[in-house]
Design a protein that fits this description.
This protein has 2 helices and 4 strands. By secondary structure, the chain is α+β, with helices and mostly antiparallel strands. The protein is globular. The protein starts with 6 loop residues before the first strand and ends with a strand.
Amino acid sequence: MLASAPLTVDVGEREFMDSGTLAELHRIAMALPSAARITPTGASPQLQRIVEIAGWQHPRLKVLASARPPQPERRPNGAGYLCCG
């Protein structure tokens, strides 16, 4: 039996989330009772775009954007920074 309480998942600190994980969240959302919701929060614009392109929008799956601005990432060799926006 699936719970009908809302579930919030903070994905803002994830460095990597593949499409399989997003597909699984969509599959879970489809199986939830109509009153339940799953809400990944802190999603990057890229993550939101993947959900949109893949057609994984669902009334019980609401992907919320990050409230934080993108943070610069170090290059693999440690020299300089790349903008992640």
